[in-house]
Amino acid sequence: MTTPAATSASAGADRRPTHALVASALVGPVLTVAGLLLTYAVRDRLPERVAVHWGTSGRPDRFASLTEAAVTASVMTALLPLVFVVIGAAWHPSARGPLAGFGGAVAVFLGGLLFGSLTSQRPGEVAQAFPVSWLLPTLVLAAVVGVGLWRWGRLRPPALDGTPRPVPAGAVRLDVPDTTRVAWTGHAALPDVGILLVVLLAVTPLLVVAVLGMPWLLLLAVGIVALLVLTGSARVVVDAEGLRVTSLFLTWSRVPLDRVAEARTGTVSPLREFGGYGWRIGKDGTRGFVTRSGEALVVERIGEPPVVVTVDDAAEAAAVLNTLASRRA
Amino acid sequence: MLWQVDPTSSTPLHVQVAACVRREMADGRLERGDRLPSAKEVAGVLDVNLHTVLRAYQTLRDEGLIDLRRGRGAVVTATDPAGDARLRSLVADLVAEARLTGTTPTDLTRLIESEFQR
C-alpha cells in the first residue's frame, strides 16, 4: 500500500467480495436494532416472563425476563453470523462471496426467529418456538439476502488479455490426430453407505422431534434428504467447451477451455483440505466436488484458484482436457 | 469414460461410438450394472447427431452388451462383454467368408459342429 505499484494493483483488484463481506457483517446488527425497536414497541402486550427455550415436545420449558430475552436475541443475531465474516476475511477473496451469503442468511434466520418468537408471545397463550407468521417470511428473506450477497461478492475472474497461454509441454495428453473429436464423461459420487449414514445422522433427531410435537420439522427433514441426494453425486464432463460439474439442474463448476491453464491428477483429502464432502471451497479459494479421499482431477485455471473433482481415471480426464485446451487457437 | 470419434475416418461414426464403449468394457472399466451416459449427452459432448449415438447403443444392445430402457437409460448387462463381442464379430466374418465361397448355412453349421466335437 505504500508503493505506487502496490496501490495501483489493489485499486485494480475486484473489491466486491470484501464489500459483500462487510455488508454481511452489518446485517446482524441492523436486524438487532430493528428487533429491539419492535420489542420495545410491543412491550406492553408481552407477558412478564417470556419463553426462551422449548423442549422436544414443542412446549416452552424455560422462561426469562423480557430484558434478558432481548439481550440474548440481540447477542445471537448480531454476533453469531460474524463467524462466517471472520472466516471470509481470513480466506481467499473468491471464498468471501459465498461466506458473506451464508453470514447474511444466518443473521436473517436468527434475527427473524428469535425476535419473531419473542414479540409474538402474549399473556395466557402457549408461546411458539417458531411462529408460523414469522417462519416463512424469515426463510424467504434469508434466502434472498444470502443469494444476493453471494452473487454480489462473487469474484469476477480477470479478463483474458488475448495472449496465448499454451498448456505446458509436460502435461499429460492423448496421442490422437487433431481431427479426432475427444470427450470424457464420468461422475463423482458419495458411496451409498456414506449417504445413508449422513441421512440417518441428520434426519433421525428431526424425525424424533417431529413425532414428539413439531410435525412441520418433517418438511425440514425432507429438504435435507433432497439436498443430500442432490449434492451427493455429480456428473463430470470434459468436452470442446471445457469442464462441467453438474447435479441435475445445478452447475457446480464450469471451466471454459480458454480458462484452463493445465489439468493434472492430484491426491485430495476432503476432511483435511475442505473440511467435509460434496461441493466445497477451500481456504485458498480452491473449489472442490469431493466425495472421497484419493485420486482427483485438478484443473488449474488462469487467474482463478483451481477446481478439484474426485473422479476415477482422473489421468484420462486430465489428458482429454489438456488435449482439447492445446488445440485452442 | 473416454469418447473419441474421427469424422475424417472411413469408419462410420456410429461404429466408432460403439467401439468407445466396447473398449471401455474390454479394459474392465465398465461393470455389469454401470450406467452409460444418455445418448443425448454423448451426442452433445462429441457434437454428433443423436441418431448416431442411438444407433451405436442399439448395436451394443443387439450384441447383448447393454440394456436400453426408457427412463433408465443404457445399462451394462454382459458379464464378459469383450469375449461376447469378439465372438459376434468372428461369426460375422465367418458368415461373410461362407457367402464368398458359396457355403450354405447348413454346411457351415455342420462344420462348426464338427469343430466342437474335435
Account of the 3D structure:
With about 325 residues, chain A is of the alpha+beta class. Chain A has helices at about 5-10, 15-40, 65-80, 80-90, 95-120, 130-150, 190-210, 215-230, 270-275, 315-325; strands at about 50-55, 60-65, 180-190, 235-240, 240-245, 250-255, 260-270, 280, 285-290, 295-300, 305-310. In chain A, the strands form three sheets. In chain A, strands 7-10-11-9-8 form a five-stranded mixed beta sheet. A four-stranded antiparallel beta sheet of chain A has the order 3-4-5-6. The two termini of chain A are about 40 Å apart. Chain B is mainly α and about 120 residues long. Chain B folds into two domains: about 15-80, Arc Repressor Mutant, subunit A; about 80-115, no CATH class. In chain B, strand 2 and strand 3 (about 75) form a beta hairpin. The longest helix of chain B has 21 residues, at about 80-100. The N and C termini of chain B lie far apart (about 40 Å). The interface between A and B is medium-sized, with 20 and 17 residues.
User: How can the largest sheet of chain B be summarized?
Assistant: 2 strands, antiparallel
Indicate the percent of residues in helices of chain A: 40-55%
Low-confidence stretches of chain A: 1-11
Sheet with most strands of chain A? 5 strands, mixed
Q: What is the β-strand count of chain B?
A: 3
Name the CATH architecture of the largest domain in chain B.
Orthogonal Bundle
Compute the number of helices of chain A: 10
Report the principal-axis shape of chain B: globular
Strands side by side in the biggest sheet of chain B: 2-3
- As for the number of domains of chain A, it is 2
Q: Tell me, what is the CATH class of the largest domain in chain B? A: Mainly Alpha
Rg of chain B to the nearest angstrom? Answer: 17 Å
Shape annotation of chain A: elongated
Query: Which stretches of chain B of 5+ consecutive residues score pLDDT under 50?
Result: none
The neighbouring-strand order within the major sheet of chain A is 7-10-11-9-8
Residue fraction in strands of chain A: 15-25%
Q: Largest contact between protein chains?
A: A-B, 20 and 17 residues
